[in-house]
Amino acid sequence: MTPTQAAVAALKGRTALINATGAELKKLLEEADRQILVILAGAPSDYQQWYLPQLRAAIARVLGTLGADVAAAVDVGQVEAWRLGAALVDDVATAAGLRLVLPTIDVQQLTAMRSFLTEKMKDVAADALTSINNQLGLVVIGAQTPFDAMKGISKVLKADTLKRATTITRTELARAYSTANQIRMEQAGAEVPGLKKRWVKSGKREPRVTHMAIHGQEQPVDKPFVLEGGAVTMMYPHDPKAPARHTINCGCVAVPVVPGWKRTVKDPIEENDKAEAARARAAIKKE
Questions:
Q1: Helices marked H in 141-214 — which ranges?
Q2: What DSSP character marks residue 63?
Q3: What would you report as the CA-atom Rg of the chain, rounded to the nearest whole angstrom?
Q4: Running DSSP on this structure, what letter comes out for residue 193?
């Protein structure tokens, strides 16, 4: 296996992990929606009784469980993303014929990231509960029918909450991956003189213009990527020190460039990509 093939396989694993975690989130939210609709279906027909504390408490229990289950699911994904981010460097180095003995990455930063994501997921469930209680309140004052409330509650969970949870999860799993990847590249750089990193744009249909503009940019592993003509610097994609506009839902990655190998990911700087990057840079200058 060549370094290019090793990088491609590693990045496919990253994509599969993020997609699988997103699918698990959707499954959990759909189950919560089902349970809440069952609770509402058994509620009194008199809309004024929808204010019953028991009704709200039953829904709160469902969403409390949802928050815990979602937090657990994304925590597993985040830990695996961290492992895969480091493994990308190891796999590429091995494919290039390097035999590196690198220390285990300190997980202190991962621990903090896990705590942050867990709390964010619990906040998502808590916000969903607030929105659902608002729907119930509209029924109590006669502003909408119980049927309309059920539709509204389903939208809260299956659309609004799912979108927010998915955005947070994709962003934070990608951040864990890129953070571990950067730490590992710095460790490898101490053993491999000339090791660099290359920014590779997202495979999305419409990647950020600013990220498209630096597609293929290479830097020493201990130096930042330069964006927006130097106005922004990022040590790696999803760098938490970067502005949110450069990190939320970003699909970019950084890959190691082993001395003596021109490429470590499939077609990163083919002629059409060079042209696209040049057009992106030109567009930025016009703004």
A1: 146-155, 162-189, 209-213
A2: H
A3: 23
A4: T
Closest of 247, 268, 243, 263 to residue 177, by C-alpha: 247
Cα(217)–Cα(131) distance, integer angstroms = 44
- Local confidence band at 268 (pLDDT 50, 70, 90 cut-offs): very low
How far apart CA 214 and CA 252 sit, in angstroms, is 11
Residue closest to 223 by CA, chosen among 252, 248, 199: 199
> Which token pair is 8?
């491609």
Count the alpha carbons within 13 Å of 237 in the hemisphere toward its beta carbon.
33
DSSP for residue 98: -
Question: Is the distance from CB of 199 to CB of 215 less than 8 angstroms?
Answer: yes
In this prediction the pTM is: 0.87
Residues 55 and 43 sit within 8 Å (Cβ to Cβ) = yes
**Structure confidence at residue 270 (pLDDT):** 46
